[in-house]
Structures are given as structure tokens and as C-alpha cells.
Amino acid sequence: MRYIDLQQVEACKPVNWDSDARAWLAAIKVAKDRSAKFTSLGSVWSPFKLNFIREFGDKCWYSEVPRIGTDFNVDHFRPKGAVKTSKGIYATKLLTGGKRQNHPGYWWLAFEAQNYRYSCQYANQPRDNGGKHDYFPLIDESTRIWRSCSFNAHAKEQVYLLDPCVVADIELLSFDKSPGLVHSRFDQATDPDKYGRVQNSAKCYNLNHKTVTGPRLEVITNVKRDLDLLEMISKLPPNSRAIMQAQLLATEDRLIKACDRKSPFSAAAVAFVKPKIGEAWIANILPRLDLKP
Residue 185 carries which DSSP code? Predict the structure, then answer.
């Protein structure tokens, strides 16, 4: 994951979005069957896709998988319909008289731009025991909001899933423990809560699915090769370095592109480049490397 600024997400609104959204939300609010009403509206959030691609690149915000030969989704981070805390288990609360009520879904956020995440189908839809879909667990269920309110009021909810729009969540991820896989920076013994959030999110978003780990490993392998090549060239005599100038520049360009936040799996690339930033042989391109979360 790379950090996605919510203010930039807000700026991706299509023309007339706010006025249209108010009308759609008013209709949803009074609908007897909200699910049917959502269906009748169709995918009104689809126009966000081109703006997301322009602003953040054409890749999944969760897995960083590029969109190749498939469609991507505008995921509602807080689900607009049913809300589950685990597979097959709905978020519920106890009512007076002992009855339990299922969460109605965050329907009031259905047209809130800052609730959107650009997502591949493997991360968002049910796939091979993963896929976010209507899964939205909290660390503390007592913080869950059950009725319509402002988007900012949801900041009190202690979200269990990692969110690409939260820097602290992104910084929990590690890529160097097993080739191509996503892991937690913290182990289960020292910080079970952070470890659990990463493990759960990796499963939910299919971050370590076999279709993802191979391409991610390829990026890591290429970055490590190019880092080694830069170091090797730096140790050559001046005459030899001059002969390899074209190769040096090509290698530097590849590293810059790999770390570009719009590039596929750039978080993994950054994870292997950052430990080298103190080396003299990378100083030339350091200002051009996007190494922020």
C-alpha cells in the first residue's frame, strides 16, 4: 500500500457530484428497500475511476496490483449494505427485550467520496477465502456508529482492517521476511494487536494471493538487482564508469520509476530502496525518489 490522501480523493469528485449525491441520498434514506434502491441507481460512483487513475495510478489501493484485462471497483470502505465482523457473522447490537439487530450498513456514506477506495476484484470481491466485500470489523465494537452522521464523526471507530488512507497503517507492512509476501513489521509476541491487524488484512485483501506474490517478487528482484548494479558501478575506475554511463542512467531511471507511487507494487520497491539512502552511490537520484509512505 501507498498512502492515499483523503483530500485528494475528495478532489476527484465528478462534475455536479455534490448535488447529485444529495438527491440520491435523499431517495435512499426513505426507501423501504435500500438494497433495491441502490441497484436501481446503478454504479453512479463509476465516474470516479478515471479521476482516481489520473491522480493515483491505475492500480489497486490495497494490493497495488495493476489493472490488466479486468475491471476494477470503487470499494465502499465502510460497506453501504450489510456489515460483517467475520465470515458469515454480521455486526449486531442488543436491543431492549433481548432481541438483536443487524447493522443497516453505512448507507449514509454511499455517496461520500472519502469513503471510496479504488480496488481490484481480488481485494474487494469474495475470492478464494478472501475479498473485503461487506467485511468491516472494528477493534472495539462499542465504537461502531449505527446511524446517519457526518463522515468526520466516524473517526471514533477503531477500524481493524488496514486503510491505505492512514499513514500509520501503511507503516505496519513489511516485505523482506519472505520473498514476495506481505508481513507485519511486528511479530505476534511483541505486538499481537498490530500483528493481527496485518495478518487479517492480508487475508481479507488477498495481499498474498498467488496471483499477486509473483509480480510483487519480480519488482523486488529487479530493484535489488538495480541497487547492486549501482553499487558495483560506483566502485569501478573512472574510465570504466564513463563507459557504463548509459547503463548507469538506465538503472537510475528504473529505480525512480519503481518507487513512483503510481507504479505497481511501489511500496515493496521503496522498502528495499530506503535502507540504502545513506549510500553515496544513490545520492544522485535521491531527490527524485518518492520514498514517502
Answer: S
Q: pLDDT by residue (tens digit) across 97-147?
A: 889 999 999 999 999 999 999 999 999 999 888 999 999 999 999 999 999
For residue 285, the tally of other CB atoms under 10 A from its CB is 17
Report percent pLDDT > 70 for the chain. 100
pLDDT tens digits, 233-243: 999 999 999 99
Long-range contacts, 277-284 (Cβ 8 Å, 24+): 279/231, 280/234, 281/230, 281/231, 281/233, 281/234, 282/227, 282/230, 284/252
- Cα–Cα distance measured from residue 60 to residue 75, given in angstroms and rounded to the nearest whole number: 10
| CA–CA distance, 103 with 94 (Å, rounded to integer) | 11
What distance in Å separates the CA atoms of residue 123 and residue 117, rounded to the nearest whole number? 11
The arithmetic mean of pLDDT across residues 147-171, rounded, is 97
Of 144, 147, 136, the closest CA to residue 85 belongs to 136
Query: What is the separation of C-alpha 173 from the centre of its chain, rounded to a whole number of angstroms?
Result: 12
Q: Which of 89, 64, 112 is nearest to 220 (CA)?
A: 64
Q: Which residues of 177-209 are buried (b: 16+ CB within 10 A; e: fewer)?
A: eeebbbbbebeeeeeeebbebbbbbbebbbbbb
Which one is predicted more confidently, 26 or 95?
26
pLDDT of residue 129: 86
**Closest among 52, 27, 10 to 262, alpha carbons compared:** 52
Of 113, 5, 124, the C-alpha closest to 72 is 124
Positions of E strands within 125-265 = 173-174, 183-184
The sign of the torsion formed by the CA atoms of 152, 155, 156, 159 equals positive
Q: Is the dihedral of CA 105, 106, 110, 116 positive or negative?
A: negative
Alpha carbon distances (Å) from 6 to 12, 78, 116, 120, 165: 10, 14, 9, 19, 6
The predicted model scores a pTM of: 0.96
Is-contact 273 286, C-beta < 8 A? no
